[in-house]
Each structure stands twice: as structure tokens, then as C-alpha cells.
Predict the 3D structure of the following.
Amino acid sequence: MASAAADPVWYVYGVVADGGAPRSSAVVAGLDDVTVSVEREGELAALVSVLDSDRYGPNALESNSADVEWLGPRAVAHDRVLTWASEHGAVVPLPMFSVFSGSAAVHAMLRERRAQLVSALERVRDGREYALRVFRVDAELAPEIGSLSPRIRAIEEEAARAAPGQRYLLERKLERERKAEVNVVGQRIVAEIMDRVAPHTLDVARSQIPRVSASDEATAGTMVLNAAFLVAPAALVAFQRALTELVETHGGHGFRFDFTGPWPPYHFVAGPTDGG
């Protein structure tokens, strides 16, 4: 187990309501297996680890945070603490490496950002976060596009009735139009997904589609939806039922679904990002 050195830094994982914080000082193992403890300030409580400044001070973080091998296990530990907290009540996750100069700086942050933190905790109090990513697989979708697009279906029917010479021209046109139509159909399916699942949620957060390499896109498909949903426990069954029906309708027919959770409410809070 790592131990704090001289002039340590105070690493804050997230903030919880004091009423939901454990009364014991030892909570769960955090970064480098250092114990996570609770710092209380009024109705708020910060989940903190006291860490060696040689490893987690500003200069060390600047040098190491771009190292994937160094970053990976620390991201897992950070998420482990927040997942533990979210299983016991509302939590406002702070970004990784939110470090403060000491206990006084942590308490000052809790006082100064009290209104923001209390509001964020209230926002996520009744739900858990679930993530959904949807991918459009053009090689699977293109052959079925006629069943999803009246315009393409009309051209297919015209080609089937046409004389051989005209049919050749129409089939060439179909090839072009199918490629263009997959984008239109993809957006329509995304709208259908949102219309079906959103009524069973407390809140929705849509994120930008991440940029990927051409090879990754060819393997996994083109991401068309990257969203997070805040779902109350009582509504989870209805949410999952709606999603299951969508997967049964569209999964394997040009769309793939990646559903994960529950997660800490990363997408539904705006916590402090700077230390002190």
C-alpha cells in the first residue's frame, strides 16, 4: 500500500451528501490502494485520498497523464470509488486528478461551490446513469434499405418492371441511392430510439460522436448515437423493455447496440474541475 509523503496532495474523487456518506472514516481503496476517507463540510462530504505529491503533484501529472499504461489502472480506481458511491446514493463525480493542496482547500471548495454541488446532487438523486451507443453497419443495412425507405422501394419496384436496358440504368441508380439513403435511414432510426426510450428516463445527455479510424469504422460500423440516460430504479424495467424491442427490430438488420451501466452520473453533473 502506498503512503503519503511530505507535502501530500488531497485527491478528490467526488462529492456526496453528508447524510449519505459513511460514518466511518475508511470507505474503499482508491488510487494506489490508498484508503478513501470522508471530509465533511456542512451538508456535503468529499471522498478523498491523501497521496504522494511526487506522484500526483502538478508536475508529475503533466508528465504521466499522457501515458496510457500509467493512466489505465488509475482510471479504474477512480471509477471504482465513484461506482461504490453511486451504489449508496447520489454522487457528483469530479474529473480525474482533481487535486488540492490540503484539507483546508477541500473544505474551501465545498463551501464555495455549495449551491452548485447541492443542485447537482438533487438532480441525480433519483436515478442511475446508463449509456447507449448505436452503430450503423452499412454492409448489413444496404440490402434491406428498401424495407425502410419508401423512395428506395419505389425505385426497386420500377427496376423490377423495367425492360433489360432500362433495368440496368435503374440498378445503377439504385446502387447510388442506397448509399445516400443509409444516412437518412440511420438518423430516422436514431430518432425512433430516442422517442421510445426517453419517456422512461429522468434526463438524457447526448454526446458528440467520437472520431475513429476508417479501419475501426469498417469493423464496428458507423456510430450514429452516443447517449447517456438517467433512469430511476422504478422505471428501469420499462426502459429495458423498450430498448429490447428496438434491438429485436433493428439489431442484426443494419444496426448494433452497445448498452452499459449503471454508471456514476458522469454526464448529468457539472462539478468543480480545479484544485486549490
The radius of gyration is 25 Å. The chain has a mean pLDDT of 84. The longest strand covers residues 222-231. The first helix runs from residue 53 to 56.
